[in-house]
Amino acid sequence: MAEGDSTKRSRLDADSVTRVLREQGVAHLRAEDELELVLDGMELRRPGAHEQEYLMSVKALDGSLVNGYRSFNVLGMGQEARGLLYHKVFSSRLPDFQSENVEIQAAIQHTEQALIDFQGPKTWAIDMGFDNDDVWWEIWKHPGSHLVNRVYHLERIVEWQTVRGKWEERYLDATFPYLKHLATIQTELEVRLQGQKYAKRQKVTVELSAVPLRVYHPQDKSRTQPVWLVRAKVVGAVGKPWFLLTDWAVRDAQSAVRIFRFYRRRWAVEDTFKFIKTSFGIEEVQMLSFEAIRRLVAFGWVAAGFLFHLGLTLDQPEVRLLAYLGGWEARPDRPPGKLVLTRGLRRLIDQATTEAILRNHIEAHGDLPPFIKHLLAAYGYKLER
């Protein structure tokens, strides 16, 4: 199972598991009046790996490049419910890979298609890594869809309206002097203030300002989209302000606070992404095929889907399998927790790693050593070449 070599598609292969996650996510979010869609890019780092399939270069935590894979994920959030709406692990070395822009567009298109019957507004909350005109216009193609994007490229050319009503071209950062203060709020953020050595979660004061602009279509400069640039400045912070671009109108304090909350809420789901990135040791495993990696990460999302209330329950066989692998005894009053599901994931990874090493030995030497072969046979385990 772990190496993904069977030609008969199992219900537990990566695509099937991901499909269950998406279906449950959509069902869980259906009753919401409004959705926030968090698009996240995630690196699956494999720093010690060199011989694995389709390894590409990804960024390490210190900014250097290491071997690994990438994934895009979309998490939907309503007032009460959450759900995973898209997940895909990919590599630039795959034969059918075109570009990361194509992968991002696919994530948006698949998510929008899954939500085609949803009648309420949808707001995509996206970080600086997706500061791209093509991404914005892909979102705006879909009825009822809006965005809040923390911008990175402050040198882009936009249109700004003069006091006489004329629209003129400006660099984005040249419009900062025209930001109009709209609100000052008190909130809690994880931030480093002046005089502090480390960032910590604490009460802070945030000043919110905005200016109306227009942005060009990337291929057709005769087309523009009205947007607002919102600056969220934490008083006394060491870091730079957030500059948030949105197509929602921001004309008063209430609308400015709403945009700030959209982006702040995006960071409220970081625990979910952190669990996938770090909790079950997938980055430590070296001898797995690309399909095995995809399958194991999909099962990581199964565990996250149960632990972080993304629409999965113990009724899903995928959740129960991880729980049993983690040593859970079925009791209605004692559902599996993070420790049990993480242990189940690690055991699944250990099984996959063992199988990969055994297959590698068979390929190199023609067969397994007699003792190992007999030991596996005694437990009913047969590994075909």
| Proportion in helices | 25-40%
Radius of gyration over all CA atoms, rounded: 24 Å
3D shape:
elongated
Tell me about the biggest sheet? 12 strands, mixed
Beta content comes to: 25-35%
Mean pLDDT figure = 87
Structural class, from secondary structure content?
alpha+beta
Distance between the ends: 14 Å
The counted number of beta strands is 12
Poorly predicted segments: 1-9
Alpha plus pi helix count: 9
Task: Spell out the helices and strands N to C.
Answer: HEEEEHEHEEEEEEEHHHHHH
What does this structure look like?
The chain has 385 residues and is of the alpha+beta class. Among the domains are: 152-255, no CATH class; 275-378, no CATH class. It is built from 9 helices and 12 strands. The protein has helices at residues 14-29, 100-114, 133-140, 253-267, 270-278, 290-307, 317-325, 338-365, 370-378; strands spanning 35-45, 56-59, 65-77, 82-90, 122-126, 145-150, 157-161, 167-171, 180-191, 200-216, 224-234, 242-246. Strands 1, 2, 3, 4, 5, 6, 7, 8, 9, 10, 11 and 12 form a 12-stranded mixed beta sheet that branches. A hairpin with a 5-residue loop joins strand 7 and strand 8. Helix 1 (14-29) runs parallel beside helix 6, helix 2 (100-114) runs parallel beside helix 3 (133-140) and helix 6 (290-307) runs antiparallel to helix 8. The longest helix is centred in the last third of the chain and has 28 residues, at 338-365. It is elongated. The two termini are 14 Å apart. The model is unreliable at 1-9 (pLDDT under 50).
